[in-house]
Amino acid sequence: MSEPERKFDVVYDPEDEYRPEPEPPAAPPAWRDGSFRIGIHTTIAGDIARSLDIAHKLGCNALQIFSTSPRMWPRPGRTRIPDVDTARFLARRRELSLGPVAIHANYLINLASSDPVARVRTIQTFRDEIVRAMSLGADYLIVHPGSARDGNTMAATSVVAESLRQSARGINLGAMDILIENTAGMGNSLGAKIEELSAILNGVPELDLGVCLDTAHLFQAGYSIHTEEGLEQTLQLVERTVGLDRVMALHVNDSKTLYGSRVDRHEHIGRGKIGLEALERLLRHPLLSPQRVAGRAFLLETPIDEPGDDRRNVAALWKLVGVAVEQVPDAEDGFSMLAKVRKASEIGRAVVVPRKQKKRTERKKTRPAAKRKPRAKSTKRPKAARSKSKAQKSWRRG
Questions:
Q1: What does the longest C-alpha to C-alpha distance in the chain come to?
Q2: Rounded CA separation 275/252 (Å)
Q3: Could you identify which of 92, 111, 156, 214 might form a hypothetical disulfide with 251, taking C-beta atoms 3.0 to 4.6 angstroms apart as the criterion?
Q4: For residues 207 and 60, what is the distance between their CA atoms, to the nearest angstrom?
Q5: CA–CA distance, 302 with 208 (Å, rounded to integer)
Q6: Does a structural domain hold residue 348?
């Protein structure tokens, strides 16, 4: 006799299913703590990792750099940064706890170009900028929108948006933001109007785009940020169009040119046409507070005419934002990106000798003195005689 068939009713209990614990969200970097992040554009000459030490010695907790020469088209095969250099850069940044790190893109990039050849070159160059910035762990990549050939800047914003889309195609930007910088409005350049920046951002909703506002460019483009009423109107316009939460960085520069000049010339903090009072009012405005947008950077692009100008501008910026002295990073006394080389002059005064001139002088000293050959006598007639002869010939022809 066969055994009866046994049947088991399996009851599915959702609680029995194994569910792995979700990955905890990554902790925000230490520099996104709502504190003021002040930096300056530092040189990458010689060693890109050295730019971090320069910012640290100048009393900064943030910085901006170029990732390559900003005024030359990159050579083929020279667009990537060697892995050993990026590793040193990342390690040194962790040691100094600097952030954010912003990279300014090549000045030759014209995202608004409609010329086919120039457009391909621009897209490839900016794509390389993105790759280099990501390899360095940059937080912001700042770029000018470009220039419209026909002068129709608002129509050209769609070209800029498409150029950005093509440049970043297939790249996961991760935590890095691309920031579009406003301009002074020289020639047919885009970005002098806040509405143009908004149109660019709206044209590429799939990318993490933000804005970098330059104080000198705003002033030169005709935004009266030097007055209390004008500053309020400008910030409210930015809030309605771009959104102040997308202003991730500010280039804090005074202006060498007049209000509405549309000429881009930067000046030392407090020595330009905007002035200390207006810049202090802007930097302490609650809508621009770093507590509202954690990690918002305030970056200097001021000139360095004399050794120590960079350090003095950084100190002036810390003073303007009103941070307690104990919270301000220490700067190294006497340090400057512009080396101070003294040589005795005939009148006994010390003068600053540029580096290139110093190198030429040193080379001359190491070379043996060459004997000068006597100059041969010229066979040409004096200028006065030649002109007289021409006059006589013309008179004879007449």
A1: 148
A2: 12
A3: 214
A4: 29
A5: 28
A6: no
In a domain, 374, yes or no: no
C-alpha pair distances (Å), 185 with each of 107, 109, 182, 192, 262: 15, 16, 9, 5, 5
Residue 347 DSSP symbol: T
Give the pLDDT of residue 373: 57
| CB 146 within 8 Å of CB 108 | no
Q: Answer yes or no: are the C-beta atoms of 98 and 136 closer than 8 Å.
A: no
**Do the strands 140-143 and 177-181 form a parallel or antiparallel pair, or are they unpaired?**
parallel
Q: 141: how many CB neighbours lie within 10 A of its CB?
A: 22
396 inside domain: no
Global pTM value: 0.81
Q: Establish how many alpha carbons lie within 13 A of residue 312's alpha carbon, considering only the half-sphere containing its beta carbon.
A: 14
Q: Which amino acid is at 332?
A: E
Is residue 286 a contact partner of residue 303, using CB atoms and an 8 Å limit?
A: no
Of the pLDDT bands very low, low, confident and very high (cuts 50, 70, 90), residue 23 is confident
The pLDDT of residue 369 is above 90: no
Q: Name the burial class of residue 121, with classes exposed (0-12), middle (13-18) and buried (19+) by CB atoms within 10 angstroms of its CB.
A: middle
Q: What are phi and psi of 104, to 5 degrees?
A: -95, 130
Which DSSP string corresponds to 33-66? SSS-EEEEE---SS-TTHHHHHHHHTT-SEEEE-
176 CB neighbour count, 10 Å cutoff: 21
Residue 147 banded pLDDT, cuts 50, 70, 90: very high
Give the contacts of 328 (CB within 8 A, at least 6 positions apart): 59, 318
Number of neighbours of residue 46 by Cβ within 10 angstroms? 8
Q: What is d(CA 100, CA 52) in angstroms, rounded to the nearest whole number?
A: 11
> Taking the CA of residue 320 as centre, how many other CA atoms within 13 Å lie in the half-sphere pointing to its CB?
26
Phi-psi region of 332 (alpha: psi -120 to 50; beta: other; left: phi over 0): beta
* CATH code for the domain of 308: 3.20.20.150
Structure tokens, 138: 């940059």
- What are 324-327's contacts with CB under 8 Å, separation 24+? 327/35
208 part of a folded domain: yes
Q: What would the mean pLDDT of 243-266 be, rounded to a whole number?
A: 98
Task: Provide the CB-side half-sphere exposure for 171 (13 A, CA).
Answer: 23
Per the structure, how many domains does the chain have? 1
Locate tokens 């520069």: which residue? 253
